[in-house]
Amino acid sequence: MTKVTDAAARRAGQAVFLCDFSPPRGVDLAYVESVRDMDADFVCVAYNPGKSVRVTPAVAAAVIRQHTRKEVVFNLACRDMNKLALQSYLLGAQAMGLENVVVVQGDAFTEKERTMIKGVDDITPTDLIKAVKLMNQGVDFKGLRLRTQTDFCVGAVLDLGRGVEREATLARRKVDAGADFFITQSLYDPRLAREFLEAYRSIAGGKLAAPVFYGIQILRKDGLTFGDIPLSMQHELDQGRPGADIALELLSSFAAHGLTHFYLVPPVLKGGVRDYQAAHEVMHAFRRVCQETRPSR
Fold it and tell me: Which of 31, 89, 106, 200 could form a disulfide with 77 if both were Cys (CB 3.0 to 4.6 A apart)?
């Protein structure tokens, strides 16, 4: 397998895509076909989107890897398992050959959902990142030696919509815990990303060395959205402009600011259905544009 950080370093200045993927709500392996030809560097398997019962991300990622040879990332949430279960799960993921994991908190359960299920939240995402890095040194949460150490590349999540200063401070803590890379929630303005990087530099006393994959959602007029969409974009959607065109424009805008690592979210339709073909077409088109505009040597 290829680690996310290795791909980012090897392709400095070029586009690197992590593409969001929802594991299926059943065991039919037909879902593999939806990503077989996807022009993504990594398929990033989400953790129980919609808080619904789905194939576990590590297993879904391993199946995708086995059947398509694509590079994969799996998400792991603190919400549903205690330290013992989380670290046992990670050992299982490593045994299946997985090396890239993104640590998330997991959406809180609603009051209605808490009548049927309760969160565990035995550990924070920052502390889990630290614990995974200790597993990479061969030590479990009890301080006991593992028979073999793990070798995970660990990602963390940021939401710049909650404030760049707040997230820059959080990013510093996660870097100190051992985070190797970051992904952000959907963004619609590259200037916010630049403000975050400057805030981090001010807080940490140096630039953020870990690669950041900026969230870009492909919008659909009839689809679900994440984050606050600018009114101008919403108006364009309402007037019939394809969401793929808006996504390509956004990608180009980020690239113009020197930001070339992306976490692409395919269109999400009602019921949680994803349009992975749209994601493939956007990535393919953006790579073609980059190739055509690259200066000849």
Answer: 106
Q: What distance in Å separates the CA atoms of residue 154 and residue 128, rounded to the nearest whole number? A: 10
| Other Cβ atoms closer than 10 A to 138 | 13
**Closest to 22 measured CA to CA, from 211, 252, 276:** 276
pLDDT digits (tens, 9 = 90+) for 41-81: 999 999 999 899 999 999 999 999 999 999 999 999 999 99
Residue-wise DSSP of 70-117: --EEEEEESTT--HHHHHHHHHHHHHTT--EEEEE--PPPPTTGGGT-
């391993």: which residue's tokens?
Answer: 62
Tell me the C-alpha to C-alpha distance, in Å, between residue 96 and each of 1, 3, 41, 62, 205.
11, 15, 20, 6, 39
Nearest-CA neighbor of 42 among 279, 294, 286? 279
Q: What is the spatial distance between Cα 8 and Cα 73, in angstroms, rounded to a whole number?
A: 14
Q: What is the pTM of this model?
A: 0.95
Backbone Cα Rg of the chain: 19
DSSP state of 60: H
